[in-house]
């Protein structure tokens, strides 16, 4: 199961490091490059609940195999994208199908792991599972930097051998499907997919359409309305996509909210930190990946500590400590971004990583353990929907914020060098889209006053971009602070073995 989910987590972040090379060869727009990253996360968020439900209805093994095949075929097609006008649509489309494949296979894989381990051993097992899967998220940029030095297409092709191993091990594990004689809630599935898609589209396009645009707020409000309608509709369905009564448990609500606010920062961090390193620190893709290793070091060490705390004392201490440490780490890291020194930032990057590592496995495991009459595949669908929806929203909102602040900063720099205000604003928007869509080392071309001023001001532009990134990282610190407030509301009770076993489905392993 770890081999199966390895691909899904690596692909959440691996594209960030390769973004400049992808854009250089394919000529994608700035918003197009962000959608190459965001389309995968959005598809994950939109289809996770469906994947969890299908694993219950059709059997975990069958859904796992279908999801793995869909994922790996989509990966191959992403790596084979042709150059030319079709490139952007091609890449985004198959990133979406990649996300759908991941949304099918992950809940099925986790349902198998949960069914195998009794509750008194499940804490350590799931802490290891979530800890390793989270570490694989961090591994994405490192692997991406190394593969990009050969060809950026390899970041997609690397999934092929991993998928082969996963399918072989799945066959050797002799998994047995135990399907349910229930129906799929198709209307609920359509509502949640449309609601998440519309809301994230509004956040994502805010930088292009503007926050005062009717289209921006129409998408956000329309998506929110559909999600509310989904919530109300599910309460009256005999076999709902999600059994909402699990939210009656205050500990589950606290776990879900902690995951939501933490994931607003966790996955988007890799995209923004990678672009920052390549633009402001003049780092290569490989060096940008090494920059992120500081975060990974803190994450890897703290994730196992978080699992130990969960087994001994429950989830609440780990959630409180992790969210507080993460908030402080991101704030201190943001404060040092304008130093433009990779080595001066490592203690704060490691602190931020340790905070996320402490909370991720305990929150995820505690939420899964609290399945009340619902299957673990279904509850996994809930928690992972929350995580991936938050990652999509975080990438969209912070991306829009970064583009706007960068444009304002660069416009101010150009005006101070004698460029007329109107011309400075136009060039600033072009520069902002170039460097916020991807890490771009190219300088402005042309012989006019604005282009000449922009070339002469490249050092100042890098500082402008670093200052804009401070807003993003301070925003991430605020997200962890909100997660801490939610962690304070966790009741601190622990799931007992009899309670969990009573809700436990039959093991799908012969």
Automatic annotation (TrEMBL):
* SUPFAM superfamilies xref list: MFS general substrate transporter
- Entry's localization field: Cell membrane
Which CDD domains does the entry mention? MFS_MMR_MDR_like (cd17321)
The record's section on Pfam families has: MFS_1 (PF07690)
- Could you list this entry's UniProt keywords, alphabetically sorted: Antibiotic resistance, Membrane, Transmembrane, Transmembrane helix
Q: Which residues form the Major facilitator superfamily (MFS) profile domain?
A: 1-495
Give me the segments passing through the membrane. 34-51, 63-87, 99-119, 126-148, 154-172, 184-203, 209-231, 252-276, 288-306, 318-334, 346-368, 471-488
Membrane topology qualifier: Multi-pass membrane protein
State what protein this is by name. MFS transporter
Look up and give the organism this protein is from: Streptomyces griseoaurantiacus
